[in-house]
Amino acid sequence: MTLETSTAPAAEPAATAPSRAPRWIKPALGLIVPLVVGIGWEIAVARGWSNGRLVPPPSKIYEMLAQLAKSGELSRHVFITTWRVGAGFGLGVVSGTLLGALCGYSPLARRLLDPTLQALRAIPSIAWVPLFVLWLGIFEMSKVALIAIGVFFPIYVGVMGAVLSVDRKIVEVGRIFRLSGPAMIRRILLPAVLPSYVVSLRQGLGLGWMFVVAAELMGASEGLGYLLIDGQQLGKPAEILAAIIVFALLGKTTDWLVQLAFAPLLRWQDAFSSQAGRA
């Protein structure tokens, strides 16, 4: 009598969840390109392939940053520029949000105000400089006003467009449930508008950092824009590049802070980007 062996496959071990990479890996990937470019340029100058006079290597830029930091100039310029951008950003966000929501919600307000605002949006930033100097002088108010102008328009256009693009069907659902005006805004309009609003905030913040350079051309004796002009006039490209790098770091940091602040309010999104980010 023979024993029959079971042909059933052995039980496979339970599938283990894929190991997730450390959280610092994804942000660190963004450093690869600037590090490769910087190291490559440092090697090129060290080997004599370029004299590095007009575009200094990273070592010279680091020396300039260390010199400015040691003298206290760097912190002073960073503080005053950040304050100007913060004040202008605040004014631009408040006015852009209110007018954008009004023009998006009210057809009458849109017909009255939007054509004029769209025409003003086409005016170059530098064209406002002489007018603000004449109206507000060369002190802080004119600089903050110019930055606020740069921030205002992307916020205004983004908010108005987001309100206009709200799906009509979900508004009808709110009306079926007899939501009041404030409840309709809080439970229907705000969640629908918020993703586009965050994008508008980031765009406005980026323009705020760009407009601060034009603002600091108006008789400024402090700020990173002043460092740019000072480096140009004295023929110090390392100082110019140092100021540009600080601008880039500040801009990226503030953009990240905006994303971080609104991330809890956008957790409900089931978008492709959120699924890809968790992969």
TrEMBL record:
Signal peptide (from-to): none
Function: Probably part of an ABC transporter complex. Probably responsible for the translocation of the substrate across the membrane.
GO cellular component, one term: plasma membrane
Protein name: Aliphatic sulfonates transport permease protein SsuC
This protein's record includes keyword Cell membrane: yes
Pfam families: BPD_transp_1 (PF00528)
Keyword terms of this UniProt record: Cell membrane, Membrane, Transmembrane, Transmembrane helix, Transport
Membrane-protein topology: Multi-pass membrane protein
Family: Belongs to the binding-protein-dependent transport system permease family.
Keyword Transmembrane: yes
Database matches in InterPro entries: MetI-like, MetI-like_sf
Domain ABC transmembrane type-1: 74-258
Domain of life: Bacteria
Localization annotation: Cell membrane
Organism: Afipia felis
Membrane-spanning parts: 28-49, 85-108, 120-138, 144-164, 207-228, 240-262
Gene assigned in the entry: ssuC_6
Single Gene Ontology BP annotation: alkanesulfonate transmembrane transport
